[in-house]
């Protein structure tokens, strides 16, 4: 049986018990020698080819350290560097202004990945704790909560395959995806459908890995909405690749 904890640290991003964890986490960011980049690379690979294997290791982490969230910021650091590098490639290809390029790179890292990720993690953390926790039938059982940092880990895990598809693959295929043709519209919509659906599928796996949650299939509901919307987007001639790049580069 997995160890349980009633520590207030698991209850939210602002709880007092969470401060030492966050302090240690942030301190390790400036100490690369304390980060496990080899494990992070393995985890990123597993999230793309065998995501259930990746989340099985979450249980092992809980058994050894008694908390679900990673205490190693290597994953976040690598994601930030990869997003910045990809944004640089897009700027070289589509931007003509150094200042605009600088702003785009910062926006990709601090808005697209971090800020939106913080918002998504907070919403997922709130929904899971408020509505999805199993109600104990025994009054003496220890009540468990989803750690906010674990919710952020779920976003980061889900973001990497999305990054591969919507940053890397889209860049490689951009000469085709940006054509004004029906085929390009179909391909762009399929690419975004797969990327966003896989993001939500990984989110579902992350929350379903917690044994004290139930009805985690709610995190798959956006996938159904995406599948329904995409055919209408294709028929309307909406090309998400052109739309996204127009936002950044005009």
TrEMBL record:
This is UNC-50 family protein. It comes from Coccomyxa viridis. It is a multi-pass membrane protein. The lineage of its organism: Eukaryota, Viridiplantae, Chlorophyta, core chlorophytes, Trebouxiophyceae. Keywords: Membrane, Transmembrane, Transmembrane helix. Its main location: membrane. Belongs to the unc-50 family. One of its GO terms (cellular component) is Golgi membrane. The chain crosses the membrane at residues 74-93, 105-128, 159-178, 190-213, 219-238.
């Amino acid at each position: 049986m997995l160890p349980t904890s009633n520590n207030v640290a698991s209850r939210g991003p602002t709880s007092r018990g969470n401060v030492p964890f966050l302090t240690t986490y942030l301190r390790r960011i400036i100490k690369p020698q304390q980060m496990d980049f080899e494990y992070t690379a393995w985890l990123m690979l597993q999230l793309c080819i065998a995501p259930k294997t990746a989340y099985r290791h979450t249980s092992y982490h809980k058994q050894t350290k008694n908390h679900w969230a990673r205490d190693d910021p290597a994953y976040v650091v690598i994601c930030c560097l990869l997003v910045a590098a990809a944004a640089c490639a897009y700027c070289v290809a589509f931007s003509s202004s150094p200042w605009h390029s600088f702003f785009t790179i910062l926006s990709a890292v601090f808005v697209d990945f971090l800020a939106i990720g913080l918002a998504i993690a907070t919403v997922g953390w709130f929904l899971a704790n408020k509505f999805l926790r199993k109600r104990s039938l025994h009054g003496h059982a220890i009540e468990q909560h989803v750690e906010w940092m674990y919710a952020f880990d779920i976003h980061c895990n889900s973001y990497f395959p999305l990054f591969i598809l919507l940053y890397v693959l889209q860049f490689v295929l951009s000469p085709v995806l940006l054509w004004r043709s029906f085929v390009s519209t179909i391909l762009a919509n399929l690419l975004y459908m797969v990327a966003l659906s896989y993001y939500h599928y990984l989110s579902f796996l992350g929350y379903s890995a917690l044994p004290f949650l139930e009805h985690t299939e709610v995190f798959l509901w956006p996938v159904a909405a995406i599948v329904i919307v995409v055919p209408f987007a294709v028929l309307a001639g909406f090309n998400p690749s052109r739309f996204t790049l127009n936002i950044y580069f005009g």
